[in-house]
Amino acid sequence: MNNNDIVKVFAPATVANVTCGFDILGFPLENVGDVLTLKVVKEKQIRITKIEGFDLPYEASKNVAGVVIQKLVEDLEIGFGFEVEIEKGVKPGSGIGSSAASAAAAAFAVNELAGRPLKTKELVKYAMEGEKLASGISHADNVAPSLVGNFILIRSYDPLDIIRLDSPADLFCTLVHPHIQVNTKDSRKILKKQISLELAIKQWGNVAGLITGINLSDYNLIGRSMNDVIIEPTRSILIPMFDKIKEASIRAGALGCGIAGSGPSVFAFSKGKKMAMAVNDIMREIYRNIDINFDLYVSKISPKGAFVIKNGN
Amino acid sequence: MNNNDIVKVFAPATVANVTCGFDILGFPLENVGDVLTLKVVKEKQIRITKIEGFDLPYEASKNVAGVVIQKLVEDLEIGFGFEVEIEKGVKPGSGIGSSAASAAAAAFAVNELAGRPLKTKELVKYAMEGEKLASGISHADNVAPSLVGNFILIRSYDPLDIIRLDSPADLFCTLVHPHIQVNTKDSRKILKKQISLELAIKQWGNVAGLITGINLSDYNLIGRSMNDVIIEPTRSILIPMFDKIKEASIRAGALGCGIAGSGPSVFAFSKGKKMAMAVNDIMREIYRNIDINFDLYVSKISPKGAFVIKNGN
Question: Residue B200 sits in which domain range?
Fold first, then answer.
């Protein structure tokens, strides 16, 4: 244990899948995320005392942050309890890792107060417990980038193998979140369980291209590889104006465009901030013309994952 | 047209698929390949005058090199004919791109004698015509590395997008070719046309890992990623002692092991030549103990594709 008994942490929103990289790739956004304050208390219980921003369960066993903290308390044999305050900056159901940001923040904060017994990568499996509560599946492609930062490749789940990839310096993301709700559970249900080998080969050809583009800072190759022939054709139906946004963004000069996570948010990659801002204007224009509210973000691929905002009182 | 009317070229044997990279990845071996001599003749016809090493059709329209030359003659509107001599160094049915080596050599030689109107990458689609004759499918994962050299990623077939990846400097391949025949056509037939999304995700996670390992010279990651959960379980049944070779090679220190192309050759990657030689000994020992003849090769990932051995008489 260290001397601090209170810590305030930030964990970013994240974009999982990244077109063809379904379930294996994700990255964090800058400046959008959840803030979680964790305070040590004597009583060995987890008490959520405040949730700002959105309406979420206060009961620890039903709260994403709560279950993550509980699991860490058990495994690290922590002899005290916690009070938790959560400021949700990521809207649930937005497709940019709302539950993941809370889960990552919770895992990161507990580890800080426990004197950092675990490496950040080792926290991923704990944060995955929160994902399991939220979506029924303990996936890592949001929690890992939210904890670790940068592009994160989940090569394998068993054993869990997480690889951090440096992002090309000039790669920017434009992201629009239309205010319709797509539930991750539902959005997984509509996926086919069997796919053709032919399509699968196309997909892993594009995965290989996208990864090479990231590794070698080949922006054009990143763009050419941003094709999801398996998930997007099914899921994009749930997102209003998806085809138009994608087509207009790419026509304007974006490298590529796809669904953020399970949607409904849509993201595009651009080379340089100027182009990312132009794509931002295009997305705004398209959603302004229909009766849907939306949020827009322009961000680098954040090299930072979760971090401490403030230690101690 | 240049002044030379005869050229002798070499095109290397190649390993396609490279475990998880089914249909999208391949690399050439050093010092194993086909030698093709092409001579300009006045009569506008393609005449194969000599085939050494193996018994293959002399009729140009039924010969892999013949059809490649014919296609180039048509597209480049070449106003003369050719005499062709082929020294097969790659055994048909070996799984290391026998037809591809002939096809690549033929395309490369015609381009040389025609004064190099096409870039080497542009020759790939012509060499693919030879593959189509040989296996019924015009795949590129042998002809592209045989022509271009180094690791070759076929990101997409439509449009054809070929990306050359530098190999880690210390990466060696040990390859054993047991003398049993596996026909590419048959070996494709046994593959399932539908696969589970779950397995496909595992596969592209490994593809992403393997490509990252190659791009960043991370040998350990290359090894961890060499898992083919889709093709190998079916095809390896046709290869005697496959499981034993794989297990013993990895236990001895190889990074990973898999089927070369559609088999029956089996390859392993190692860091450093010393380890690759040790794996060579292990493979020899295993096949010596059963009644099958075999060839063994130890090779770097050749940075060279097809090249001119001799220009002019």
Answer: 171-300
